[in-house]
Every structure is written in C-alpha cells, then in structure tokens.
Design the sequence.
C-alpha cells in the first residue's frame, strides 16, 4: 500500500503558487472542497486560473477567492449566483471562459483517460465554436458536425469526497459526486479532502469511485458547513 | 392565457410511458408535478441523478442531494447517482429521450437562445448547449412575449445561440407550435380563450396556420 496521507490542509496545498491552473470539484456549493478553498484564501496565492463548474456565491465557495481577487480567470459552465463575479466579469477585471457543462466534464475526463482531444456536438454553430476545428462524423445513424475540444491541463485538482482511505481511494456521497471523480483523474497533482478518513482495507474495493492512483494527497477535512443554495421542501 | 403551471401541465401531456426526461430550470421543473398517473418516467438531473423525486419533507433536506437548479430533492426507488461526465454521456448518446427547457428566443428554423444577453446578463449555458445539441426531442417552455411586449418567436434569433435547428415543439402561454423541418412555427393548439389574431400579433417569425386550430385541453 502506498500511503497518500498528508497531515492537514496546510500540507495538502504545498506547491500551489501564483499563476497556476487549479481544478475544483463541486456543483454549486454541493461537494466543494471547503477546507482547501479556505486555505487558498489564507495563502493569498493570486492570478489563479480556476476550472470549476460554478463560481460559488458571494460569501462562500469560490466566491471567497473572488472577493479577495485571487482569481485571474474562471473556466465554468454557469456562474449565475454570484454578484461579485458578474461585476468583475462585466468590468473586465476577471477573464471568463464559459464552457458547456458536458464539455467541461468531458475535457476533465479526457485528461484523466489520456486522450488529448474530444469531439462533441455541444456548441456547434454558436460562439463557443469560434476558432475551433469542426469535423463531420456519423453517429447513431446521423451525420452531423462535431467540435474538437482539448483535454484540460491543470497543475492541481482539488476534490472533496465523503470517505477516503490512507491509500487515497475515494467514495463520494449522493450528488456531491458531480465533477469530483473526473477532476480527481485530471490533475497533475490531485488533492482530496474527505469527511471520513479510514485505514486502508476498511473500504470495500468494490465500492471505490476513484482509485488511489489518481489521488496524490489525502487528508481529513473539518468543520464542513455544507451550505444549501436553494432549500426546497414540501409539507408533511 | 396559460400561467406557468398551465404551460407545465400542457407539456406534461407530451411525456410518454418509459421515457427518461431532463427538465430544465424554471417552468420545465414544474412539469414533474403534472405527469399523469400510470405514466412511468425517470427524471434525469444533469448533476448526476436518474430517478429524481420530489422536494424532501421539511427537516429531511440533504445538502449532498440537489438537482441541477441547486434545489434540495429526493431519490425514488430505482434511482442512481453518477458523475458529471457520465451524465452528459447518457445525454450525448441519446439515452435521454426528452429535454424540456426554457428559452429567451426561438427562431422559425428551431434555433434557440437562452444563455446570454451581451453586456447585460451572462450566466452561462450550463448544460443547455449539450442537451440541445444531442437530444432527439426538445420541447421549449416559454413566455411568447417579453415584458416589453415583443415576440420571442422570431424569424432569426438576435441573442447568441445555444443551439442550431434543434427545437421541435414550443408551448407558450398562447399556444402549442411545431417547428417544421422546412422552417416555420406551425400552430397546433390555442390556449383557452386565445384567438388566432392574438397569436398572430405575438409571433414575429413565420406562422403557419393550417385549417381549424382547436383549443387545447388541459
């Protein structure tokens, strides 16, 4: 067994420096690496390029790094819930690349699967396609145009899992899975923060979502807030 | 004239037994409330759910279980959870049969715009571009006329496109339309109490009225 454990969040983020490209798992505020985001704020690293489906809200998630202006460029699919983000984007302070959500996920996946490019129909005929190569392929009995998109390259990927073991194996819970497994595969160095860190051998190998080979550093996170963006309920 | 729930109710009639369906944010989400009994469908949420259930009971919300609109939801028996890449894999490979989504504009050849108003609002396309590029059957739920009184059924979209020649059907507060392969909004049904004249006034693109148009039953 190769031990992937680091002592704490400070040790986990060692090596993240100004100007790096970082992937962060999560969908909205669900399944985001809360501990590492807080640590990046503390470290004051700047000019980051962040690849993440969303940009958090004003006072939580990646919104915290936007408040402190540590992000130079965001690569996301949807950024609707964040006023400071919108302000920085419209004023030109923040560079933004909007990517269709499936393309975002698959560009992560491609990186983790060792494939430099993918072809997707998403964005053909729209401004997303500007400057990109297209090709026609026949699929499911229909010939249509596909857009070539490149695998992401990220210096670090930071993911959040529910359980992990000392070998770096990860299990996610419910929809907190989202982008985490594909981003875990895509980082040059992958950091995983988990709610429960257990000794190797305790997790059933049949139930592992992300094998430890993809996870270079793992630590047990603390004080998860797990904020809910839209609390919707029905009456009993 | 239909309200939002009326539009959702009418769209629910398009949902057939055995379908996997993706519902977008807004009016499409309401469709789930009106799927007739005896029709078995599975709702897909692109953040990684098949078999999505209703909102949880008060006090049973789980921060780790949300839909694509970031609302707390539940799972039904037979549900499954997967990552974002697989989620769009099943969309791209057309395993998801029906996509229902909102729009800011639709053109008479089935182009859709719903992600950006240059200089004003840029929320992003989320999963909409992937959905419209791959789904075989796309129904748009929308208000036909904007707050300024202008039609959103156009000959050509003014806003940046989400997808090209992809919309098959549109349900608005005024009527139901089919996009013809050769172009044009073919009026299929009128909303209760709405006249052909009102529909003509609210359609900027090519409107096709063939014979007697019945009032919809909802």
Sequence:
């Amino acid at each position: 067994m190769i031990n992937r454990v680091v002592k704490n969040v400070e040790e986990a983020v060692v090596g993240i420096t100004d100007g790096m490209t970082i992937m962060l798992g999560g969908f909205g505020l669900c399944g985001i690496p809360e501990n590492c985001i807080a640590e990046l704020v503390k470290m004051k690293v700047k000019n980051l390029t962040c690849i993440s489906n969303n940009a958090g809200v004003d006072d939580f998630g990646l919104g915290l790094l936007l408040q402190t202006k540590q992000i130079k460029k965001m690569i996301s699919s949807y950024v609707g819930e964040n006023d400071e983000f919108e302000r920085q984007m419209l004023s030109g302070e923040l560079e933004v690349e909007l990517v269709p959500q499936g393309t975002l996920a698959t560009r992560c996946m491609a990186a983790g699967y060792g494939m430099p490019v993918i072809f997707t129909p998403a964005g053909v005929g729209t401004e997303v396609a500007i400057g990109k190569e297209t090709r026609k392929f026949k699929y499911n009995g229909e010939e249509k145009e596909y857009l070539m998109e490149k695998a992401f390259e990220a210096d670090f990927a930071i993911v959040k899992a529910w359980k992990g073991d000392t070998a770096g194996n990860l299990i996610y819970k419910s929809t907190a899975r989202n982008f985490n497994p594909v981003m875990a595969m895509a980082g040059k160095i992958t950091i995983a923060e988990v709610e429960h860190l257990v000794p190797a051998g305790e997790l059933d190998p049949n139930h592992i979502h992300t094998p430890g080979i993809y996870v270079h550093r793992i630590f047990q996170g603390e004080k998860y807030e797990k904020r809910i963006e839209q609390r919707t309920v029905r009456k009993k | 004239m239909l309200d939002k729930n009326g539009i959702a109710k009418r769209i629910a009639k398009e949902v057939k037994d055995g379908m996997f369906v993706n519902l977008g944010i807004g009016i499409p989400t309401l469709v789930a409330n009106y799927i007739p009994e005896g029709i078995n469908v599975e709702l897909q949420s692109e953040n990684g759910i098949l078999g999505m259930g209703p909102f949880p009971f008060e006090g049973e919300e789980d921060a780790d279980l949300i839909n694509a609109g970031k609302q707390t939801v539940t799972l039904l028996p037979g549900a499954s959870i997967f990552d974002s890449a697989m989620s769009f894999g099943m969309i791209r490979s057309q395993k998801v049969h029906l996509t229902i989504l909102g729009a800011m504009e639709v053109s008479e050849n089935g182009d859709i715009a719903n992600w950006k108003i240059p200089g004003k609002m840029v929320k992003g396309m989320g999963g909409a571009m992937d959905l419209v590029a791959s789904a075989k059957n796309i129904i748009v739920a929308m208000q036909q006329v904007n707050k300024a009184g202008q039609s959103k059924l156009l000959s050509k979209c003014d806003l940046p496109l989400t997808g090209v020649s992809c919309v098959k059907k549109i349900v608005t507060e005024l009527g139901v339309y089919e996009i013809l392969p050769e172009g044009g909004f073919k009026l299929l049904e009128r909303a209760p109490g709405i006249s052909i004249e009102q529909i003509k006034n609210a359609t900027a693109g090519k409107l096709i009225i063939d014979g007697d148009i019945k009032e919809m039953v909802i």
